[in-house]
Amino acid sequence: MPPFDMGRTAKQSVADIHPCGACPVRSLTVCAALEEDELSRLADIVQTMRVESHHTIFSEAEPATAMFNVTAGTVKLYKLLPDGRRQITGFLFSGDFIGLAVNDKFAYTAEAVVASSLCRFPRRQMDALMEEFPKLQRRLFSMASNELAAAQDQMLLLGRKTAKEKIASFLLSLSQRAVRRGQKDNPVLVPMSRADIADYLGLTTETVSRTFTQLKSSGVIRLMEGGKVQINDKDGLYDIAEGT
Amino acid sequence: MPPFDMGRTAKQSVADIHPCGACPVRSLTVCAALEEDELSRLADIVQTMRVESHHTIFSEAEPATAMFNVTAGTVKLYKLLPDGRRQITGFLFSGDFIGLAVNDKFAYTAEAVVASSLCRFPRRQMDALMEEFPKLQRRLFSMASNELAAAQDQMLLLGRKTAKEKIASFLLSLSQRAVRRGQKDNPVLVPMSRADIADYLGLTTETVSRTFTQLKSSGVIRLMEGGKVQINDKDGLYDIAEGT
DNA sequence: CGATATCTTGAGGAATCTCAATACTAGTGG
DNA sequence: CCACTAGTATTGAGATTCCTCAAGATATCG
Fold it and tell me: If DSSP codes are grouped into helix, strand and coil, which group holds residue A244?
C-alpha cells in the first residue's frame, strides 16, 4: 500500500436512524441550537452514514454539497502538498462538526481514522434552514469561532513548540476533549497512528515515537495497549506542554 | 512616511472624512453586507480610532468588548508562550476584520505594525445589529469561514514547509492580498520586520534574512528599499512555495 | 550626523529528519 | 489455535535543516 493511501470512496448506507431528539451527541453539536419541535426539520433532511476505517468522506477541492456531524468514531482532516507531504488540520470525534467551505469547495480531505458514523446534511437544505432559523446560523458561527481559536492554538504549537511540548499538548487536548464528550479522560484513548499524530504535529513518526518513549521514561505517562495512554502526572504534562 | 498613510492629518478620523457609505474598504469587509440605508445603523455605533506603530489594540485574555475593522495600516495578531516565544497568527490590512472571540475573551493580542486606523464596533451593539440584520450575521460567518481556511493553509505551511517554501508562500500571499485590496501587487509591500515575519512563519529572524538573500541570489525576487519586494518570477516563486 | 534598532552574514551546535534494522501487533488462513 | 503476513511501532546512527551566538553592515530617526 502506498505511503499515503487516499482511501477508498465511502459507501453510504441509510443505517439505523435514531431520531435526532434522542441523539446522544446532540447537546454538543449544531443540533443543540434547535428546540425539540424544530429538530424534526433537521431530521427531515439528515442522512446517516457509516464509513469504514481509512475511507474518505470527501476530498479537497470537491464541491461542498453537504455538511457533516460525527456521531461516533474518529475522523481526520488533512491537506496535501504536491509531493505528498501531509498536514492533518484536525481530528474530529463524536459531536464535532465538519463542512465549513470556501467558494463552495472543501478546503481539505476528510477520512475516517476508525470506523465512524456521521450525520449528513445537504448544504442547500441546510442553508434554507439557516435562513429560517437564525439561531442555527448563530450556532454555526459560534462553532466556527471556536474552531478558529483552536486553529490559532495549533499554529502556536506548530510554529513555536518543541517535539516534547507538542506531544504533551496533544495528549492534554485529547484528554480535555474526552471530558467534554463525557468520556473517560484518563487513560486517554489515542485512536490514531503515530504517522497521523506526526502529520498533525509537524513531526515524523520516528520523532513521535521517541518522544512518547521519553515521556514514558520520565514517568509522566504510561503507554497502555489498545492505543490508550495513562497520564500519571497531569500538572507535569501541562508544564511540559507550556514549556515552563 | 509610514507606508499606508493616505495623506490625512493624524488627528482626523476616518468617519469625518468619509461616512461609511463612502468608505473605500467597505466592499471588502463586514459592512458590505448592508445596503446604503442600513449602513447608517452601523455608522451610529462605530468609533474610529488611530493607533501608532507598535501600540497594542487589545490583549490576549482581555474581555472582548468590541470588534474592529482595519481601514488603514497593518496589524498583527499574536499569542505568547510563558517563556516569551511568540506566534503571530495573522497580519491584517485595510478591509480586514478582527474580533472573533471565544468565551467573550480575545484569544490573542492585536498590535499595530505601522500606524493604523480602525473602526471600532462595540460588541453588545453589534450583536443587536446582527439580530436585526441576519445578513450581517451571514457575512461574519462567511468571513470566519474564510479565516478558517486561511488558518488551515497556515498550518500546512508551519507544519510541513521548508524555510524557503515558507518565505515564498508568504510573499505570494501578501501579493495576492494586495490585489484583493486593489493595491499594487508587484513590487509587494512588506511592512513588517524580519522578526515579525519569523514569528509568523515559525522561523528565526536570521533564517528569514538568509532565505530572502537566497531567493534574491537565485533571481526570483529583488529586495527594494522601503520594505518592498519585487517578484521577478512569479511562477518560479509559486513553484518554490508549493515545493514542486 | 550620530544613536539605535534592524538586518545581514558567519561559524558552530542542536533538534529533528532520513535511512535502516528490528520488534511488535493484528488480522488471516491453515 | 497457531504460524504467517503485513502493517505499525520502536530504536539506532548519521545527515541536514534550522537555531544560537556573535559580529558587522545598513537603515531609520531624532
Answer: coil
